[in-house]
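Human
Can I borrow your eye for a moment on a structure tokenisation matter? Give me a protein, with the fold worked out from its sequence. Write it directly below this note and I will take it from there.

Assistant
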Amino acid sequence: MLRRRFELTPLALAAIAALQAAPSAAQVNAAAPAAASAPIGLRTSPLLREDIPSVVRKELPTFVYGDRISGRTNLDTTIEGHAELRRADTVIRADRMEYYQPDDLAKARGNVRINRAGNVYEGPLLELKIDSFEGFFSQPSYRFLKNNAYGNASRVDFIDDKRAIIRDVSYTTCQRADYPGWAPDWVLRANGIRIDQEEDVGVANGALLTFFGVPVLPVPQLSFPLSDKRKSGFLPPTISLDSVNGFDYRQPYYWNIAPNRDLTLYPTLMTKRGIDVAGEFRYLEPSYRGQLRADFMPDDRLRQDNRWGYSWQHSGTLGLGLPSPVGMALDLNRVSDDNYWRDFSRGTGSLTQRLLANDGQLSWTSPGGEVATSLRTLKWQTLQDPLAPIRPPYDRLPQLNARYTRSDLPLGLVGFVEGDTTRFHADRRLTLQPNAQRSYVLGSIERPWQAPGWFVTPRVQLHSTRYSFDAPLANGTEAAARTLPIFSVDSGLVFERPASYFGRSFTQTLEPRAFYVYTPFRDQSLLPNYDSGFNDFNFATVFLENQFGGNDRISDNNLLTLGATSRLIDPDTGAEAARFGVAQRLRFKDQRVTLPGQAPISERLSDLLFGATLNWTPQWALDTTVQYNPKTGRSERSTIGGRYNPTPYRVISAAYRLQRGLSEQIDVGWQWPINDLWGDRGQDLGSGRGQGPNRWYSVGRLNFDLKDRKLVDAMVGIEYDACCWIGRVVLERLQSGLATGTTRIMFQVEFVGFSRLGSSVVQPLRQNIPRYELLRDPGLPAPSRFSNYD
């Protein structure tokens, strides 16, 4: 047997001396018996950091190992046979190694292997300065930790610990399979690749991407990410076929201006329409942030006109010398014409809506929160469709609001006073009523009594409103006023008991609730309506004093709302496994105040409201609300939705929505492995990692109108996961009018760890399919360097 001989360098001797100087466990225990009862915990160590600072790195010791070690003190060390050098997160192994201390230079030959923070290089010859990580490696193979990419090269020049130049290189993430003739599905070959792990970017010169041996992307220079970190450069193009746009080619360019600013340009060629130039600018400062989106299409052949649109969202604070800062918020949106929402239906943000808000607001809240004020201007752009016109809302030019709240009044009272004055303006030819200045004051005071198991809260409100019109009303008046008191009492009980259902133990609650409200009648039929509408009849609004939203109508009420809720709560986790609710209004007199054109409400008993939510297991969820009319014996409105999500990448959601006489729709969305059909269940690798190679997935969402018997919106596609690349094909149809729609087909190939080519498919899938999961999520944490530790 060969006997190893170790002659340690001075650095290694210093390290051993430091270890010997450290007190032993017995000495520590003997010196501190009082601390024996302290809780035991792990102490953090700088050696366990993912990134070791250069200042710390220089102070760390160097360890060398080998069959034979010889050298001269403070000059050089030679290691022969199983040579190994360790410092911080760097390990070098070779058949023979020479280390020159004055230059901090290591020369290694024969089966050389470097592991630098999990990144591995192997080859026959290495010269490297350890601290600065400067040197070269001949004919190496390499593998990167972050994305498990690997390849071969003729030479690697290490510039420093973050940057390297790899020459005559191949690059892929396809992991080798064990069968004869295997070759990676895709390979990037280049004359040279410059790797910058500080910016997490690679730049290839003279690059050629081959896919199954077929050249698909020859480019003189190509940059690609090593992670999801931002970088400047051209992004992968997106391509699709569209029934409106024709062949659609978009070439994005991303400019990382600064850590807190960036700009993305989206020039797009549409063969049926022309060229559209769009961009998005984002900024983030300590006191404000925002984003600006805009696009311009000169001479759109579809409409024979110039088309444009913009959207600007901004929020921040202003320091004006007040005790607390003033908040500022802008939401500005504008487009060129009424058809924009239809022709650019896949735009971003509010540019896809028919009601575009131009909203600016200043707000201030006192340091204690008692006083809150706001000044707002709101102007709408309404995009009209002749076949489905909508009534434009009123602009608010301007609106001033102030609110004073107190929760520490005598006798346990809580109250607030709110004042508001708003200038309402719109085109009278469309609204058929005059514009006005409306001001109101609302005062509220209540006295809550509550204890475990019950609560009672009486409340009194006074609502006083005054109008000043630009033109006389039908009765000739140019001003109007209304003052109304509102009295209500909200009360409830909470009972609990242990229960067991289907072999599970629960804490079951029974929570009856009674809510009474009285508001006297005031004739409001001659008052214009600027912002009021019926509140939706649901569990969130059934216990409110006013059945109208806004402030132009206050319902006259003498009614009692009764309801009850029962919940099943897991006593160990506190999770709610089930919730059941019922509510109904009992009206003691007719409600005479209505919206224009509506009849008074004379029914003494309202429809019954039923609701149920089931989360019996994490895999199943059910949520339903039914508005049931006892007289007709049928539901007036129903919503039933469910979801089954047993594992990642297996989810089916469905919803049924009925509004009697108006609409009836079914909505189904899914993501499911097709391999399940032939018994291949895949691997449970967790979210964002897929379920193994060579698997097919079906994705889609269908919205079907049962009343008109037609498909409204549809998205159906397949995904194929080959482990190192993912293919996607998606067919999408969107309704853009009562009798019109747009259809497009999208293709995409994602080269995992490199780039995506084809259409922009991922974002539409995320927006349309509930709980859709990426087969490879770039947002997952990067692997630790200790996961590939030598």
Remarks:
- Residues 1-37, 348-352 have pLDDT under 50 and may be disordered.
- Residues 385 and 668 are 28 Å apart (CA to CA).
- The longest helix spans residues 10-21.
